[in-house]
UniProtKB/TrEMBL annotation, chain A:
Its EC number is 3.2.1.20. Residues 398-726 form the Glycoside hydrolase family 31 TIM barrel domain. Residues 220-237 have a biased composition (Acidic residues). This is alpha-glucosidase. It is an enzyme of class 3 (hydrolase). The keyword Transcription regulation does not apply.
Automatic annotation (TrEMBL), chain B:
The keyword Signal applies. PROSITE patterns: MRH. It holds the Pfam family PRKCSH-like. PANTHER family: GLUCOSIDASE 2 SUBUNIT BETA, N-LINKED OLIGOSACCHARIDE PROCESSING. GO terms for cellular component: glucosidase II complex. It comes from the Eukaryota. This is Glucosidase 2 subunit beta. The lineage of its organism: Eukaryota, Fungi, Dikarya, Ascomycota, Pezizomycotina. Residues 313-324 have a biased composition (Basic and acidic residues). Residues 304-328 are annotated as: Disordered. GO terms for biological process: N-glycan processing. It comes from Amylocarpus encephaloides.
Length: 964, 565
């Protein structure tokens, strides 16, 4: 949700007085920079950047080497010890290293620290925190793909070891012992280099040597501490202050860092969540570059700004590097605060060639505050190889309940159950489809979750029943902060059973959030999860029924009075792990607990949960959708949505969206209209608004806007079969839903940085929604020589390069690429659930060769029966004048029953776009043994010829053939 | 599109319609039956150039751009201005030809349901009590005919509504009568006041004359009176000075009092801010608050030492004390001094005595006139201002003054009465009957109150006082489209009279509160519903007999869409 100016009620009266002062300092709508750290203000970031700078100077000797004699090879595992030289006397610390080669073709490099691992260290401040480097990130993130390669082979020389792996032995890892480095090769060519620049750093444990210091003034952070050893600046090692609070850092400096180089790769993508372009920028200054590294430290960033490497609500430390016809990737499995520096170096083979044949290397430098080094390496070579391999490890996106990919109507807040029912009626009355209406925090009784405000929501069941009449749903918010109020059973139980997050002394942590004083559930604790699950049972959460779903917000966690609006890093979680070690996973654990709870609301009834989260990590895609947080009603925020959603998609989390209309502020009518047209292409499509904004439900906007918005919504609904098929695809192989150009055309360099247009799944739909104020056309980039058609009027576009599409307010620039078959359901209904029995329309978009292919996936949209075969999956093919449907499904024990239930669902129309002229005189087509009418429409100006097969009387679930 | 949207309920079926019923295709209402009569062919209603075979009617495929070939299915719903544009050959009119799917609803009132509700698996009994909209039974859905019970219940409620409507109209008559009486009473007051004013005016004229005469005479008596001798320039000055000093002193005292009050306020505010600074959570990460506290600290630092104005206070205090012989100026000393100082002036007046009697009186008169002329033109000082005035003048003036005051107040109240009479109290002045009365409603968190033509307010049950939601400004009109409950409560569809209440209490992060009160006919004055449409902009749907209309009463009893026909 939001951090707004709306104060907790107790402060309200005081703030009214203060508001006069506030006016003097006119608050502009921009992020409060001072609330969040710059690299300079984060000790380990500053240290590692300094380390990198020192390493860049000639004469630098990287202090990490593999003790060759320690190295063993067994069953795809190369294990040994890295020695880190820590002083001039040559003293070393031992860092166990494991390089694992997986069956999938991925490789994994893990580096720990022996002394911490064995617990042979002392913590300061009598801390009871765990001594090891955090080693449980895997258990929250990785769900498969860890089978070790049986075919990998190792060969060793005196200075290095070479492992050959991959399905065809196409990959190689060359491990150099001193200094330690690994080069990953594909087909003999180096793709990824670890520690090529010698920036590997594992800050080993050391005791604090108390020195007699000159009297230091309190609050004077800048006084440099005296140096311990020559060159060692201790100033950021210990207790670290920020914004008036001090991190006690009982484990001292413990950061890990590694440089990863992508030789010859000019573009890197991924590492969401940031507001900025898909192709990541350089971060060490210079014209148009960022000055700070990309930061990953999940935080509730109020009024975030555009084109910034600042951290946002979620993080996925997965990066792809791309060059012509090759994609590779790395996944940095570390849950602590992480920063990534990116620099690109142009390297000309021949200085006289003036850039021809020159190549660019991308250097990245990753550092995390604590935990282990744990890196996965993916060698591609295609973008989908990389996303698939990543998905094998972290899981593919949940196949969501079908309603959740339809339209969501949200607002902070619908004020009462009557209000909800009124909006519901009005949407129906205006014939605007929607599936879900949402409740923000105000529905609760005094911000106590699992309760309803008895005055404003006296009859939640009545409200839910009305929604259910048209198969609509309700989503209610449940956050991780539990109001600290005597007599509130949830908090009392949390206290009594120790299910909360503790402070550094091991006592229940108390902070401030929406309810005022609060405690936070610790979902790292399995017992707490179990308890959480119980709270959602229909019998426990009174006033809920099957069409109520959940929204998890503020799970970074957002703590209003905490450092950087989150928890102190020295807080303790289950197992006494410091919050610092697992911060970025926190949101995932809470989201996951809610997902589990939704599975178990009623014994014996297993339905797909829908849970929206704001905070996320690698793996969150398994348990629900995310949205880009509290954006603003401005054109630049509208424009920022697609790069962010696309980036999330290629990082394995495609079920993403931005608040349509913009959360803060009041959108002008044209902005709101354009936003709906854009939102119709968000995988997660929700209109949302801040409590201080004017009402903006689509029917309120007025003519002609309401009509245009309704058309955008109905466009989404008519394409639901295509969207659902794309979600299915993402759920089985990790392919993004919004696919950027580089993903579709890995060889087309002109498209590598394009992030404002995209393809929808495998449908061949190429969209470029208008995101610029006043624009009445867009320039769309076409990457190939295929024939493209305007979606609505079949106007033809072709030829590689830029094409201008006229786009007055009522028009969405949307093309269909020749060669695809798109399934639709054109009949408008009140909700997607009510479209279930409607017949399909198939749009056959012919390629230049007069061919087309497509797929459809259908199931009940609600249960897990598809796992037992209760689904329809068909391949459509048009070739040589014959359109056919063939089964792609695998039969399971529930297949027949399901197919039978779908017997009545047919195809009402087949539209063939780009129909050959020879059909002009054709009046019928053969459908099996019968026939159906064909209506031909000749080419008109630049608009392609098209034909319609009327009522072919074919079933969506069956094999059939239509001869033209 | 309007036709599709309209959930029109038709009144009772005629017998001829029933006869024709069996021959009409599914979903066709009696008034469209003629289009479907031919057994050889069917032409689209809005586009007769398209001819179809009758078998194409309701065949689940849309052939007519106006949807007329699919009266009984949802096949044509996608051709709509609200749906994505479809490629259609030619520029065909895709406005729906039919108002919807016709539900016969035998035993109840027939109706049209939007085609997009047909065969979607939902029994929309509200419009289609016979369940005929789900004739396909998709997904195994069965919608049994419930018209009998629904019709019965509807008729029961309708009876109640009819009764209520009659009651409402009766009550309206009463209100009108009451309003008429109130108006008459105002009119009466006006005429009474006018009479009073007339008599007061003549009385005032008389008294004014008397007063002027007396005063004229007095003024003519020359300055030399009992006390006149003392009025030397200095004493006049002293008199003036004293009055002036007194005036200044009293002003000073009141300014000092005001200052003290403000000081008290500043102290309170500083106390609040100091407490705010002390009690706030410094880690609350709100830069606005941080800056405010910083500004307060700076202010507090600058203020140090500036408080020391006690000396000034003492000065003010002593200056404020009234003058006496021992303190300030001893006015008596000045007022009694210089008795012979104006001898010359006397001589001027004495010259009359040397004139013959006849001329003397004429001259006397002229001198008086001349003097009055001088006084009136500001050349000579007026005796009257010198603080001494004869009792006769005083009495005359006060008599005149009192009548004049009386007249003024009568005129004011006449003005008020006339304004009130001219004010908009709705048709037939009906709201005059409701003025000064209030109604309230308990609605969730708040108790709302509407005072007719006065103000609206809310009171939270969670504590806090009354919050003003606006003061009455004017009547207005508004197009509304709302549900009407089975109990007949709701403003319905159409243009309604509204009362605008504006400039209520200001909202945190918002505007001043305002309320639009939408009025609809009901037997009882009642707030039905209060919604906050926008932040701090409320709408109250209110029932009152005051807006009932006799001629529409027959139509208004319909469940919804009462203004459609």
């Amino acid at each position: 949700m939001r951090r707004s100016l709306a104060p907790p009620s107790r402060w309200a009266s005081l703030l009214v007085l203060v508001s006069a002062f506030c006016c003097l300092f006119l608050s502009t709508a921009a992020v409060k920079h001072e609330n969040f750290k710059t690299c300079d203000q984060a000790g380990f970031c500053k240290r590692n950047r300094a380390y990198a700078d020192a390493a860049g100077v000639s004469g630098w000797e990287a202090p990490f080497r593999i003790a060759a004699e320690s190295l063993t090879w067994k069953d795809g595992l190369l294990q040994g010890t890295i020695l880190k030289t820590i002083n001039k006397n040559g003293e070393t610390v031992r860092l166990p290293v494991t390089i694992t080669f997986l069956q999938s073709g991925s490789a994994r490099v893990t580096i720990d620290e022996e002394r911490r691992q064995k617990g042979e260290i002392e913590l300061r401040h009598n801390s009871i925190a765990r001594k090891e480097r955090y080693n449980e990130a895997e258990s929250w993130t990785i769900v498969g793909g860890l089978d070790v390669s049986k075919t990998a082979t190792e060969s060793r020389e005196a200075t290095r070891s070479t492992v050959t792996y991959g399905s065809e032995g196409q990959f190689q890892a060359v491990i150099t012992f001193a200094p330690f480095s690994v080069d990953f090769k594909r087909d003999g060519a180096t793709q990824i280099k670890l520690n090529d620049r010698g920036l590997l750093n594992v800050e080993h444990w050391r005791p604090k040597i108390e020195k007699v210091e000159p009297e230091k003034k309190e609050g004077d952070e800048e006084t440099p501490a005296p140096e311990v050893e020559a060159g060692e600046d201790e100033s950021t090692w210990w207790d670290e202050p920020f914004g008036g609070q001090t991190d006690s850092k009982p484990k001292g400096p413990e950061s890990v860092s590694l440089d990863i180089t992508f030789p010859g790769y000019e573009h890197v993508y991924g590492i969401p969540e940031h507001a900025g372009p898909l192709s990541l920028k350089q971060t060490r200054g210079g014209d148009g570059n960022h000055n700070d590294p990309y930061r990953l430290y999940n935080a509730d960033v109020f009024e975030y700004i555009m084109d910034s490497p600042m951290t946002l609500y979620g993080s996925i430390p997965f990066m792809q590097a791309h060059k012509k016809d090759s994609t590779v990737g790395v996944f940095w499995l570390n849950a602590a605060e992480t920063w990534i520096d990116i620099t690109k170096q142009k390297e000309a083979h021949n200085p006289l060639s003036l850039g021809i044949g020159s190549k660019t290397d991308t250097h990245t430098h990753w550092f995390s505050e604590s935990g282990m080094i744990d890196v996965f390496v993916f060698l591609g070579p295609t973008p989908s190889d990389v996303t698939k391999a990543y998905g094998e490890l972290t899981g593919y996106t949940q196949l969501p309940p079908e309603f959740s990919i339809a339209y969501h109507q949200c607002r902070w807040n619908y004020n009462s159950d009557e209000d909800v029912k009124d909006v519901d009626r009005k949407m129906s009355k205006h014939q605007i489809p929607y599936d879900v209406i949402w409740l923000d925090i105000e529905y609760t009784d005094d911000k106590q979750y699992f309760t309803w405000d008895p005055l404003t929501f006296p009859d939640p069941i009545g409200m839910l029943k009305q929604l259910d009449e048209s198969d609509r749903k309700l989503v209610a918010i449940i956050d991780p902060h539990i109001k600290n109020k005597a007599g509130y059973p949830v908090v009392e139980e949390l206290k009594q059973k120790n299910f909360g997050v503790n402070n550094k002394d091991g006592n229940l942590y108390e902070g401030w959030c929406w309810p005022g004083s609060s405690h936070w559930i610790d979902c790292f604790n399995p017992a707490a999860i179990k308890w959480w699950i119980g709270l959602f049972k229909y019998s426990a959460f009174k006033g809920t029924m099957a069409n109520l779903f959940i929204w998890n917000d503020m799970n970074e966690p957002s703590v209003f009075n905490g450092p950087e609006t989150t928890m102190p890093k020295d807080n303790l979680h289950h197992g006494n792990w410091e919050h610092r070690d697992l911060h970025n996973i926190n949101g995932l654990t809470f989201h996951n607990a809610t997902y589990q709870a939704m599975l178990e609301r009623e014994k014996g009834v297993l339905r797909r949960p829908f849970v929206l989260t704001r905070s996320f990590y690698a793996g969150s895609q398994r348990v629900g959708a995310m949205w880009t947080g509290d954006n603003q009603a401005s054109w630049d925020h509208l424009a920022a949505g697609f790069p962010m959603i696309i980036n999330n998609g290629i990082a394995g989390y495609p079920f993403a969206g931005a608040d349509v209309g913009g959360f803060f502020g009041n959108p002008e009518k044209d902005l709101l209209t354009r936003w709906y047209q854009a939102g119709a292409f968000y995988p997660f499509f929700r209109g949302h608004a801040h409590i201080d904004t004017r009402r903006r439900e689509p029917y309120l906007v007025g003519d002609p806007y309401t009509g245009i918005i309704t058309r955008a919504l109905r466009l989404r609904y008519s394409l639901m079969p295509a969207w659902y098929t794309a979600f299915h695809e993402a759920s089985v192989n990790g392919t993004p839903i919004l696919r950027p150009h580089y993903f579709m055309y890995p060889g087309d360099e002109a498209g590598f940085a394009v992030d404002d247009q995209f393809f929808v799944g495998s449908t061949g739909l190429l969209a470029k929604p208008v995101v610029k104020e006043g624009a009445d056309s867009v320039v769309i980039y076409i990457a190939d020589e295929e024939q493209y058609y305007d979606y609505f009027d079949f106007k033809k576009y072709s030829g590689k390069g830029s094409q201008t599409i006229s786009a007055p307010l009522e028009k969405i620039p949307l093309l269909m690429q020749g060669g695809h078959i798109i399934p639709r359901k054109d009949r408008p209904r009140r909700s997607s659930g009510l479209m279930k029995w409607d017949p399909y329309t198939l749009v056959v978009v012919l390629s230049k060769e007069s061919t087309a292919q497509g797929e459809i996936y259908v199931d009940d949209g609600d249960s897990f029966d598809y796992e037992a075969g209760a689904y329809i999956k068909r391949a459509f093919d048009f070739k040589d004048g014959v359109l056919s449907s063939a089964n792609l499904g695998t039969k399971g024990k529930m297949t027949d029953k399901y197919i039978k239930s779908m017997k009545a669902v047919g195809v009402e129309r087949i539209i063939v776009v780009g129909a050959p002229k020879s059909w002009e005189t054709k009046k019928t087509v053969k459908v099996g043994k019968g026939e159906a009418q064909l209506e031909f429409h000749a080419e008109e100006g630049n608009k392609a010829a098209w034909a319609v097969v009327k009522n072919p009387a074919i079933n969506i679930a069956e094999d059939w053939k239509i001869e033209f | 599109m309007r036709k599709v949207e309209a959930l029109v309920l038709l009144s009772t079926l005629s017998s001829t319609v029933i006869a024709a019923e069996s021959s009409r295709p599914r979903g066709v209402g009696p008034e469209f039956g003629a289009f479907y009569k031919s057994t050889d062919s069917f032409t689209c209603i809005s586009d007769p150039s398209i001819t179809l075979s009758p078998s194409q009617i309701n065949d689940e495929y849309c052939d007519c751009p106006d949807g007329s070939d699919e009266p009984g299915t949802a096949a044509c719903t996608y051709l709509s201005a609200l749906s994505p544009p479809q490629p259609i050959a030619g520029n065909k009119n895709t406005s729906a030809a039919l108002p919807g799917f016709y539900c016969k609803n035998k035993g109840h009132i027939s109706g049209y349901i939007p085609h997009m509700y047909v065969n979607d698996g939902v029994c929309d009994y509200e419009i289609c009590c016979d369940g005929s909209d789900e004739w396909q039974g998709v997904g195994g859905k069965k919608c049994e005919d419930r018209c009998k019970e629904i019709g019965k219940e509807w008729r029961r409620l309708d009876d109640i509504k009819q009764k209520a409507m009659r009651g409402a109209l009766k009550r309206k008559e009463e209100l009108l009568k009451d309003a008429g009486m109130k108006r008459a009473s105002v009119e009466m007051s006006i005429s009474r006041t006018e009479t009073e004013i007339k008599s007061l005016e003549s009385k005032e004229r008389e008294l004014k004359k008397v007063y002027e005469e007396v005063e004229r005479r007095e003024r003519g008596k020359v300055v030399v009176g009992k006390e006149g001798g003392k009025s030397s320039k200095v004493t006049v000055l002293a008199g003036l000075a004293k009055a002036r000093v007194d005036e200044l002193r009293s002003t000073l005292t009141s300014v000092a009092t005001k200052r003290d009050a403000l000081k008290e306020k500043v102290k309170d505010l500083e106390g609040i801010l100091a407490k705010f600074k002390e009690e706030r959570n410094p880690n609350f990460n709100d830069e606005g608050v941080k800056r405010a506290v910083q500004a307060w600290e700076d202010y507090a630092a600058n203020k140090m030492g500036g408080d020391d104005d006690e000396a000034l206070d003492r000065d003010v205090e002593s200056v404020s004390k009234p003058d006496s012989e021992t303190e300030g100026i001893n006015w008596t000393e000045w007022e009694t001094e210089g008795e012979e100082s104006d001898v010359e002036a006397h001589a001027v007046y004495k010259f009359e005595e040397y004139l013959p009697e006849a001329i003397r009186s004429w001259v006397h008169q002229k001198i008086i006139d001349f003097r009055i002329m001088l006084v009136e033109n500001g050349i000579l000082a007026d005796n009257a201002n010198s603080g001494s005035e004869s009792k006769a003048v005083t009495d005359a003036r006060s008599a005149y003054q009192s009548v004049s005051d009386d007249l003024n107040s009568k005129q004011t109240s006449l003005g008020e009465l006339q304004t009130d009479l001219a004010k908009d109290y709705g048709n037939g002045d009906i709201f005059r009957a409701l003025q000064n009365t209030c109604i309230s409603k308990d609605s969730g968190e708040y108790e709302y109150e509407l005072c007719w033509l006065d103000k609206t307010s809310q009171k939270s049950k969670k504590g806090g006082g009354n919050t003003g939601m606006g003061n009455f400004v004017r009547f207005d009109r508004l197009e509304v489209d709302e549900e009407v409950g089975a109990d007949g409560k709701g403003v319905g569809k159409g243009e309604r009279i509204t009362m605008m209440y504006e400039n209520g209490q200001h909202c945190w992060n918002g505007p001043n509160r305002q309320t639009t009160v939408v009025l609809a006919c009901a037997e009882k004055d009642e707030i039905w519903k209060v919604v906050e449409q926008e932040k701090c902009m409320y709408r109250m749907d209110v029932g009152t007999s005051a807006v009932c209309e006799r001629e529409r009463s027959k139509v208004a009893e319909g469940k919804s869409g009462k203004d459609e026909l």
